[in-house]
Amino acid sequence: MADKKSEGQKLAERLLMKPKNLGETDGSLLDKAIEFCEDYKKFLCQKTEREVVDYTIPILKKKGYKEFQMGKKYTPGNKFYMNNRDKSLIMVTVGKRPISEGLRIGVSHIDSPRLDFKPNPLFEDTDMAYFKTHYYGGIKKYQWAAIPLSLHGVVTLTNGKTVKIKIGEDEGDPSFCVTDLLPHLAQNQMKKPAPEIIEGEQLNILVGCWPFGDEKVVGKVKLNIMNLLNEKYGIVEKDFLSAELCAVPAFKPQDVGLDRSMVGAYGQDDSSCAFANFMAEIDCKEPEFTTITVFADKEETGSDGPSGMRSFFFRDFIEDFVSAYGLQVRHVLKKSFCLSCDVNAAIDPAFGDVFEKTNCSFLNRGPVVSKYTGSRGKYSTNDASAETMGFLRKILDENGIPWQVGELGKVDIGGGGTIAADISVHNLDTVDIGVPVLSMHSPFEIASKTDVYLLYKAILAFYNSKLEKK
């Protein structure tokens, strides 16, 4: 006969939280997550914001989405999208409730840290050709040396034509790299602080060493590289002045662990959230409230520019959309609710001293909700209200979605921001939710497949919810 629970045990069950690894509560969850993440790995192969937009729009069209028409009154069930400069994207499913009752918005960013080319990138030194770079976003520079890189981007030619470039991803393509110093000669290098082991001006990408066959030419290796690019893409050196080119890790997304429970890949900050957001949008068929899913650019460098969330592109779109119904954008946004979908740092026992265990996120405990981000004294944060947290909490709990809370490390250690602050500035209730990630901002980030899958389930529950915001 089983022992009866003591009063203390009963009280503990009623009053205390007991976070668990999800594998202890649902043995079938991993199989569902593994299946879901097969398409996620395909999404991860889109490594720049332009490639994500190019990949997404054909899928939207197959799912019945049409291009947005300003001034048109859409009816429940209509689906449409707005492409902003091929670098940010807005997707909409019109709900049953009047637009005047508010919107359900999910925003994620589709840019990731990388090595951008300088405007005049190509040079030759000691019979080797290189591209000069200016790193984009927060990186540990030493992590980008001696790994295979691929080249991505677009070049606008003198005649106005824009050509797309992707080299190093397909079978048989060449790879590229930033070189590093051999240990035998690195005594002085290894004494430097980590940020100086590889300096920004040393992040030059090796692209060739074979000379053009003409003794009368100076800079033969550079000329040979330029000739190869010209033959394939029609580029001359001056065209780099009107280009957006970058280098990213050439790694393919891979299963990690003997149990295949994790994904290792470049760009999971923030592709994990973007994919979950996207899948929730297209799987939400007849929502109560109109759903708006936003892919934003430039988050890693402060969300500036016409494709970042500090731009007016988001608010301008909402205004164009709701004005067809005779509504004011400020009135609609005040009644709306937004999920800022971005990753958080999963606790890593190898570096446990920077985490505060009762307020950090863990792999396999579901999506992490961050009431606030920012750094130290909560600078540069949104800081969701109690009512905002309560609204999301009720949706997740009523739909049986496991979730956790998390801060980005100990208070005085560091911290970081998301686009939540740039969204809530529109008088729009906003809270962060995302996937816990190991090795964030490295060339090879790690995420749990169950966390990615459950973030999708959480956003879908939010989009489908009939709960009214108080």
TrEMBL record:
GO process annotations (BP): proteolysis
InterPro entries assigned to the protein according to its UniProt record, in alphabetical order: Peptidase_M18, Peptidase_M18_dom2
Keywords: Aminopeptidase, Hydrolase, Metal-binding, Metalloprotease, Protease, Zinc
Annotated GO CC locations: cytoplasm
Gene3D superfamilies, A to Z: Aminopeptidase i, Domain 2 (2.30.250.10), Zn peptidases (3.40.630.10)
Cofactor dependence: Zn(2+)
UniProt superkingdom: Archaea
Any one GO molecular-function label of the UniProt entry: aminopeptidase activity
UniProt cross-references to NCBIfam families, sorted A to Z: PRK02256.1
Family per record: Belongs to the peptidase M18 family.
Protein name: ApeA protein
